[in-house]
Every structure is written in structure tokens, then in C-alpha cells.
Design goal:
9 strands; Beta-Lactamase; single chain; Alpha-Beta Plaits; alpha+beta
């Protein structure tokens, strides 16, 4: 029997080697290891019997269950890792999109801020330059429009001007306004902005601030231009009488000398000095004397032609530049009109003032080829006339006095 069992085992091993050389089937080895065949040692086992084969086949189900469980766990892990990776990728993509949008928004804000600052700098340069006020106000309204996202923007100034883009049809527009303040006195006007969209939450303060910046620039532009014009006027005109000052006259003289030299023409200069003005100041006071100078200036201006120029040289001295004359006689005619305009009395704050003036004439190039020489020649001629008038008055007074001393018949 031992031989027979041994033979059967060898036959089983040989059959197994047909499937996998050098080893037994896994089911056989596992069954042997776990049960030790459940037979006493030395008992021959036959693999050809049905009981033994059933025993070995019945022991394979735990291996299949464990393998299935392991595969399910691995699949679950793979799925979980894949899902987690997908979620992370989606989150990173969303965050990247948000950051990209934020960077674009900040870049757009920076670009617009740079553009606004460039426009503001250019406006400040133009305010101090020679560009007209209307053009500067148009630039300011354009800058505010850009800052407010393309809203229509315009000014309504106190003088009636309305620079900017005024809406032709205001139906359905949301209008925001900001007063244009003045450093002193009443407001200069109002700055407007019109929006086609409804008010956005949190935007009201930004809109009001943008209009405030524009209003400050408008104030600066208007008052700087007023100051510039005032300074220019002060540099050219006499503050008391509002006629040209000595500097302006000298500039006009130089220009007229160059023109006359080129065209080989002549022109006249008339020097005017008020008589007894010091006594008038002493009698009535300097305030009445200043008002008298104003009245005298306006009356003399009315005696001149449109192309003539009257200037106050200082104190009670004036000069009239008459560029169009054919001879000395033409200048003498105008000088006579200036002298005779004092014949009628002046009414100043209830006072009736009587005055007179002495005049002197200089002709280019006969009496001088430069401004200084012409002024000196005209002044000398005026002094000669004043002295002659004084002597005439003295002679007349002496005659009256002498006549009073004559004995009666």
C-alpha cells in the first residue's frame, strides 16, 4: 500500500508539473499547509480519489475573497486619489483665474491712474502756459469723464459759459453735480456728470470725489487765468487812471520808431502836464485829486483818434502817441484839442474844479530818433509852453495891479 500511495503522489506531482514545471498547484500547497491533509503522519494520500480532490477544491474560496477585497480597496484608493487631485486641480484653476482677473483689474486701474495723472500734469502745465481757458476747461471735463468711466461731463459757469459734453437728451440719465468753489466770494459755477446706468453700491463717494478733483482744477484754472490777466493789465496800465503806463508807452515808442524807420515816415509825441495840480491836492485832498486825474484821463482819451495812445507817465504828467501824422500841423491840431478839453469845469463829488494843462510836441525823426530823445524833446517843449503861460499870467497880473495904481481923472 505504501508503494501504491507513493506512486500516486508521484503521479500527482507529475501531473502538476505538466501545468507548472517544478511546483505543485497553489491550491494543493495551501491545503496541505493549512490542514496537513487532516490525516495521520505516514498515511498515504491519493489525489485521484473524489474526497481528496473535493477537500482541496473547497479550501480555495478564502483566497478569492481576500484578492477581491484587496482589488476593491486599491480601486477605492485610486478613485479617491484621483478625485482629490481633480478637486485640487479645480481649486487651483479657480484661484488662478481669480488672481489673473485681479491682476488685470489692478493693471487697468494702474493704467487709468497713470493716464489721469498724465492728463492732470498736462492741465497744470497749460494753466500756467498760454493755452486758452476754454481749451483747459475742455481738458478738465475730459479727464473727469475718463475717471468716471466715460460719463458725460460739463461745466455751467457763472458767466454763462458751458464747456464740456452736455447731453442733448437728459431723459433717463442720472446726474451728479459738484459746486466749483472760489477762493473768495460766490461760487464760480457747477461741475456735472451724467450716467446712463443706475447708481452702483459704493460708487457714490468715488463719483463725488472725482467731481471734486475736477472742480478744484476748474477753480485753479479760472482764478490763475484771472490773476494772470490782472498781472498783465497791471504791468501795462496805470492802476489809478486805467490808461497805459510809462513802460507800455516806451514799448510802443520803440515799435513805432522801427516802423517809421522802415517806411521812412513820421509820427508825433505830445507831452501833457497839468497846471496847478499840487495846489488842487492841497486844497481838496488827495482823494479828490485822484478822482480829478481819472476824469482828466477819460476826457483826454475822447480827444484822440482810434489809433492814438494815451499814457500816464507819473504824477500829473501824460503823453499821447499819435502815429499817423502828415506834418507837425496834424500833431499841433491834436495837441490843441487836448489843451482845450480843460476849458469846461470838472464835477467831482459835488466840487466844481477848473483846471488847465500845458502841452509840448516832438516829431520823429526831426526832434529825436530814440524814445528817450523824443520824450526829452516833448518835455522841453511843454516846459517852454508852461513858462510862457506863467509869464503871461504874471504880466497880466502886473498890468491889473499897475492899472489899479493909476491916478483917477
Amino acid at each position: 500500500m505504501a508503494d501504491v500511495g507513493s506512486k500516486e503522489l508521484r503521479a500527482a506531482g507529475a501531473n502538476a508539473s505538466l501545468h507548472r514545471p517544478g511546483c505543485l498547484p497553489a491550491a494543493v500547497l495551501t491545503a496541505c499547509a493549512s490542514t496537513a491533509w487532516a490525516v495521520p503522519s505516514g498515511t498515504p494520500i491519493s489525489l485521484h480519489t473524489g474526497d481528496n480532490l473535493a477537500l482541496i477544491a473547497g479550501r480555495s474560496w478564502p483566497i478569492s475573497s481576500s484578492f477581491t477585497l484587496i482589488v476593491c480597496v486599491l480601486l477605492a484608493l485610486v478613485f479617491g486619489v484621483g478625485y482629490w487631485g481633480w478637486r485640487q486641480s479645480r481649486r487651483v484653476h479657480r484661484q488662478t483665474a481669480i488672481m489673473t482677473e485681479r491682476v488685470k483689474s489692478e493693471a487697468e486701474l494702474g493704467r487709468r491712474a497713470t493716464q489721469l495723472e498724465q492728463r492732470r500734469s498736462r492741465i497744470l502745465e497749460d494753466i500756467n502756459g498760454s493755452r486758452s481757458l476754454d481749451e483747459i476747461l475742455e481738458q478738465i471735463t475730459e479727464m473727469v469723464s475718463i475717471d468716471l468711466g466715460g460719463a458725460l461731463c460739463w461745466c455751467a459757469l457763472a458767466n454763462g459759459a458751458r464747456p464740456g459734453k452736455f447731453p442733448t437728451d437728459g431723459h433717463g440719465l442720472r446726474v451728479v453735480r459738484r459746486e466749483i468753489p472760489a477762493r473768495t466770494g460766490a461760487a464760480l459755477g457747477t461741475l456735472f456728470a451724467a450716467f446712463r446706468s443706475p447708481e452702483e453700491p459704493g460708487r457714490a463717494e468715488a463719483e463725488y470725489e472725482a467731481l471734486g478733483v475736477g472742480a478744484q482744477l476748474v477753480t485753479l484754472a479760472i482764478e490763475t487765468r484771472r490773476l494772470s490777466l490782472d498781472l498783465a493789465h497791471r504791468s501795462e496800465f496805470d492802476l489809478l487812471t486805467d490808461v497805459y503806463n510809462r513802460l507800455s508807452l516806451e514799448r510802443f515808442l520803440d515799435k513805432e520808431i522801427a516802423t517809421a524807420h522802415e517806411k521812412e515816415s513820421i509820427f508825433g509825441l505830445i507831452y501833457v502836464d497839468l497846471d496847478e495840480f499840487k495846489q488842487m491836492n492841497d486844497t481838496y485832498g488827495h482823494r479828490i485829486g485822484d478822482l480829478y486825474l481819472r476824469e482828466v484821463s477819460q476826457r483826454m482819451k475822447r480827444q484822440l483818434r482810434s489809433g492814438d495812445t494815451l499814457a500816464r507817465l507819473g504824477g500829473d504828467e501824460f503823453a499821447a502817441l499819435v502815429p499817423v501824422v502828415r506834418s507837425r500841423a496834424d500833431a499841433e491840431e491834436i495837441a490843441l484839442r487836448l489843451e482845450r478839453c480843460f476849458d469846461a469845469p470838472f464835477s467831482v463829488e459835488g466840487y466844481v474844479l477848473r483846471g488847465s494843462a500845458s502841452v509840448g510836441i516832438a516829431i520823429y525823426p526831426e526832434n529825436g530818433a530814440t524814445a528817450d530823445k523824443l520824450l526829452s524833446a516833448a518835455d522841453a517843449a511843454m516846459c517852454t509852453m508852461k513858462l510862457a503861460k506863467r509869464r503871461a499870467v504874471e504880466n497880466l497880473s502886473g498890468l491889473h495891479l499897475h492899472g489899479g495904481l493909476l491916478p483917477r481923472d
